[in-house]
């Protein structure tokens, strides 16, 4: 994306904003969206903020058939002072390019994409909900638009950013969830696309989630795709365990998606002088730690929930409860600190917050 101006075409009508208590996740969208188009000859052109509306695409567009697409997810918050705040947004743009690289899609200009996001946020600032725990979810994504049924990288793409006001993930306060350890299906394997935020990974995860839902579990715990022995992720979150005072998260192994929340938590723990280590951890080890009373806390991490405490695991019909099914102290401390940095109410030692206006 060479630096070009962004054209703004404002919507003639304004959509109705949902009430804070009615906000869900990803159902309602703001009045505007950002679009840029790419073709091999010209690179990125036609950067524009336009009214939110359905797209017209050729039915043969490669994205529909072979899933050549990537996405990102981050949030904007309104600070007490009325400023728009983002959390490490440059990390999302960088990861988007890493995903693009894996899917043979063109790179975006990360700085320009961030600038485009800021302009879009200013146009739709009214849509950022104010109630505690609410935010504006930001979904940048890229799709392959060339009409072609051959299996090959597209020569045409569209990059877009859409925005959706979302409610608090924890309407009744932060609470632990029950997890089903998945022994049949896998999310990703080394050498596959697990490290990229690409649609196919999420399509591939639906079946296991459906089974977990039916059994009354809220998420699945994914094991490695080769031996089904080592822990990888929980749902579409990274996962952490506190065992004997030490915090452990599975090391990046070529199939785990590197979360920005994960990265931030590792940095925070180091800053607090709490031992944290990235290494392989097996279900067998977790079971043993639980049996010995050494498993103190477990939690998932990601943009949507920030911290999602785990209260129970079911592994091959054996259940083990963590911390009496209650939210652990460290989980709570991490949640409060991260959400405080995001909304601008607690000290931000790493300057992760970015104010837009
Ligand atoms: C997005 C995502 C995460 C979490 O990433 P964050 O940057 O922390 O939101 C973890 N695992 C998967 C599979 C993901 O798609």
Task: Please describe what this structure looks like.
The chain is α+β, with helices and mostly antiparallel strands and 357 residues long. The protein has two domains: 7-166, Aminotransferase class 4, branched-chain amino acid transferase, N-terminal domain (D-amino Acid Aminotransferase, Chain A, domain 1, 2-Layer Sandwich), CATH 3.30.470; 177-343, D-amino Acid Aminotransferase, subunit A, domain 2 (D-amino Acid Aminotransferase, Chain A, domain 2), CATH 3.20.10.10. The chain is 24% helix and 29% strand. It has seven helices and 18 strands. The mean pLDDT is 96. Pyridoxal-5'-phosphate is lined by residues 73, 197, 233, 236-238, 257, 259-262, 301-303.
Q: Find the CATH topology of the largest domain.
A: D-amino Acid Aminotransferase, Chain A, domain 2
What is the CATH architecture assignment of the largest domain? Alpha-Beta Barrel
How many beta-strand runs? 18
The level 1 CATH classification of the largest domain is Alpha Beta
Please give the largest β-sheet. 9 strands, mixed
Helix-residue proportion: 10-25%
Ions, cofactors and other ligands present here are:
pyridoxal-5'-phosphate
Count of separate DSSP helical elements? 7
Strand content: 25-35%
Mean residue pLDDT: 96
Order of helices and strands: EEEHEEEHHEEEHEEEEHEHEEEHE
CATH superfamily of the largest domain: D-amino Acid Aminotransferase, subunit A, domain 2
Number of domains: 2
What form results from the Cα inertia axes?
globular
Terminal Cα span: 23 Å
GO molecular function: L-isoleucine-2-oxoglutarate transaminase activity; L-leucine-2-oxoglutarate transaminase activity; L-valine-2-oxoglutarate transaminase activity
Pfam family, one: Aminotran_4
Catalytic activity: L-leucine + 2-oxoglutarate = 4-methyl-2-oxopentanoate + L-glutamate; L-isoleucine + 2-oxoglutarate = (S)-3-methyl-2-oxopentanoate + L-glutamate; L-valine + 2-oxoglutarate = 3-methyl-2-oxobutanoate + L-glutamate
Protein name: Branched-chain-amino-acid aminotransferase
């Amino acid at each position: 994306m060479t630096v070009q101006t962004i054209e703004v075409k404002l919507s003639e009508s304004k959509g109705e904003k949902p009430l804070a208590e009615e906000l869900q996740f990803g159902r309602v969208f703001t009045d505007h969206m950002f679009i840029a188009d790419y073709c091999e000859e010209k690179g990125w052109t036609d950067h524009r903020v336009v009214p939110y509306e359905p797209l017209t695409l050729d039915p043969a567009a490669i994205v529909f058939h072979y899933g050549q697409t990537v996405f990102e997810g981050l949030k904007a918050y309104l600070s007490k002072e009325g400023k728009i705040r983002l959390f490490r947004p440059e990390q999302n743009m960088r990861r988007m390019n890493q995903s693009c690289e894996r899917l043979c899609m063109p790179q975006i200009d990360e700085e320009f994409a961030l600038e485009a996001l800021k302009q879009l946020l200013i146009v739709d600032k009214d849509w950022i909900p104010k109630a505690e725990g609410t935010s504006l979810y930001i979904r940048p994504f890229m799709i392959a638009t060339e009409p072609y049924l051959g299996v090959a990288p597209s020569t045409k793409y569209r990059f877009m950013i859409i925005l959706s006001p979302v409610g608090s993930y924890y309407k009744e306060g932060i609470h632990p969830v029950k997890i089903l350890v998945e022994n049949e299906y896998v999310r990703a394997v080394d050498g596959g696309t697990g490290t990229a935020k690409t649609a196919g990974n999420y399509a591939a995860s639906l079946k296991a989630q459906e089974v977990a839902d039916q059994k009354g579990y809220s998420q699945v715990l994914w094991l490695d795709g080769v031996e089904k022995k080592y822990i990888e992720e929980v749902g579409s979150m990274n996962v952490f365990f506190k065992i004997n005072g030490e915090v452990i998260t599975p090391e990046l192994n070529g199939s785990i998606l590197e979360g920005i929340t994960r990265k931030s938590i590792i940095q925070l723990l180091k800053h607090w002088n709490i031992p944290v280590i990235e290494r392989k951890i097996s279900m067998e080890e977790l079971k043993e730690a639980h049996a010995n009373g050494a498993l103190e806390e477990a939690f998932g991490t990601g943009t949507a929930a920030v911290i999602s405490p785990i209260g129970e695991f079911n592994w091959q019909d054996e259940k083990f409860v963590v911390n009496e099914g209650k939210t652990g102290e460290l989980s709570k401390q991490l949640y409060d600190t991260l959400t405080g940095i995001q909304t601008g109410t607690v000290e931000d030692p790493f300057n992760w917050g970015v104010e837009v206006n």
